[in-house]
Amino acid sequence: DTEVTQTPKHLVMGMTNKKSLKCEQHMGHRAMYWYKQKAKKPPELMFVYSYEKLSINESVPSRFSPECPNSSLLNLHLHALQPEDSALYLCASSPRVAGAGGANVLTFGAGSRLTVL
Amino acid sequence: AQKVTQAQTEISVVEKEDVTLDCVYETRDTTYYLFWYKQPPSGELVFLIRRNSFDEQNEISGRYSWNFQKSTSSFNFTITASQVVDSAVYFCALHNAGNMLTFGGGTRLMVKP
Residue B79 above 90 pLDDT? Predict the structure, then answer.
């Protein structure tokens, strides 16, 4: 199994809603990532989890709340979002967070396309 | 600071043409890794290649080939005999120790039948 599965594929929410994006992998990877991608732009890193602990938060607003319940699952909880948060949210995983010894290949999911009204 | 530049934002070719996607990077590190990812309309980023800074051998995989030149800080990607299924956005990315991936702006390739 070499997939990263993201649900839902599409999500429309109002600014007062609370919703969650889910990501799952069964490759035994111990690093998981959330990226945000606006139209015609490259992905931007939001969060990195290493061994189920948050290791990087790229100054993301608190209306985005990540959670890693176990080594296979990664959630992104959404609350009080703004229309400018509309984007493709990509989850990725890698065997571990890269260190000085090398760079791991990230395996990406197909993304959740979020529209905030 | 590290930076990746993909000067071509969009390229359009006719099927069976060869096409080269340019990638120029900046880093002060001597050890780093370069990547190419493909993003088809379905959304996921598909890994194509990883190359470390000490390996300047060019690589060929089927219709794909990569030319890594440290002297010009470039890591270009050539598709030979392009096909409609090659239509996608292609990202070049750089990773060095202690940092995450830095993506270039991407090149949208359109292959017309």
Answer: yes
pLDDT of residue B55: 87
Q: Which residues contact B27 (CB under 8 A, 6 or more apart)?
A: B2, B3, B94, B96
Q: Distance (Å, rounded) from C-alpha A75 to C-alpha B65?
A: 37
Q: Is A103 in contact with B50 (Cβ distance < 8 A)?
A: yes
Interface membership of B50 toward A (CB under 8 Å)? yes
High-pLDDT (> 90) share of chain B, %? 77
Question: Cβ of A56 and B100 within 8 Å?
Answer: yes
Tokens of A31: 């690093």
Determine the residue among A3, A21, A38, A105 to mutate to test chain B binding: the one whose Cβ has the most chain B Cβ atoms within 10 Å. Answer: A105
Q: Are B99 and B107 in contact (CB under 8 A)?
A: no
